[in-house]
Amino acid sequence: MTAWLDARGAEAESGAGAVGGYSHRVDLLDVAATMSAVEASAKAMGGIDGVVNCAGLGSGAPLENLDIEIWSKMIGVNLTAPYVICRAALPWLRKRHGATIVNIASAQALLPNAPGAAAYAASKGGLTTFTKALAAELAPHIRANVVCPGIVDTPMTRSILERYQDPNSAPFIAQYAMKRVARPEEIATAVLYLTSDESSYVTGIAMAVDGGRTFH
What is the residue extent of each domain of the chain? Predict the structure, then answer.
C-alpha cells in the first residue's frame, strides 16, 4: 500500500489510483499540513516502511535575477519538505524492519555546470548531504540513499525539451555519454532497487542515474 502526497490533486489521485493507494493534496511548503498528511497516511496504511521524496522545483534564474523569493521556494520544496516528511515518518519507520528512505536529488548536486542553476544545485546538493547524514544517523535500522538523475522526460523538463524537434539532439545532450534523455521508468527502477531487500547492504550512497553526465 502506498500514499501519494502532491500539490496537484489530480496527479496525487492518478498516482495513488494506479497502485491502489491513498492520495493527499498538500502544499509541501505548509509544514503542518505536510506532517498531518504523513500521519494520516501512516494510520490509513497501518504504518510506513519506506519514504520516497521525489517532489521537485526547478528554476533557470541567473544569480542577478535570483530573488530571495525564488531561492526560498526552491529550498523549501527541494530540501525542507523532504526533511519535514522524513521527520514525520521517522517514528513509523523505526517500527519496521528494513525501512528505507530514498530522496531524489539531481546530477546538478554532483556536478553543477548548467547556467542559472545556483538555487536548484544548492537545494539538491543540500538534499544529497542531508541524506548521507541520515544514513549515518539512522543505521543500521533504517537505510537512506539518494538518486541523482540527469535530464528526464517529465513535466518539469518538458518546457526545455519541447524547444527541440528531437530532444536527443539538444546541445546539452553532448554532456551525456548515453547521448539521450532518460525515461522516467529508468529512474523508478533505481528507486525500486534502493527500497528493496536487493540493496540491503547499501546506505548513504548518491546514485548517479544520469547517462554518464557526471563523468563524461
Answer: 1-47, 49-209
The domain at 49-209 falls in which architecture?
A: 3-Layer(aba) Sandwich (3.40)
Annotation says 120 is catalytic: yes
d(CA 184, CA 123): 21
Which of 59, 124, 53 lies closest to 84, judged by CA? 53
Please state the pTM of the whole predicted model.
Answer: 0.92
Please check the confidence at residue 158 and state whether its pLDDT lies above 90: no
Q: Which three cell numbers stand for residue 24?
A: 493527499
As a whole number of angstroms, the distance between CA 56 and CA 108 comes to 13
> Across residues 159-165, what is the average pLDDT?
81
Q: What angle do CA 170, 147, 7 make, to 5 degrees?
A: 85
Q: Which of 22, 83, 120, 176 is catalytic?
A: 120
Q: Rounded distance, CA 201 to CA 213, Å?
A: 26
Quote the CA–CA distance of 123 and 146 in Å, as a whole number.
Answer: 13
pLDDT tens by residue, 134-145: 999 999 999 999
Give me the helix-helix angle, 118-138 and 81-93, nearest 10°.
20
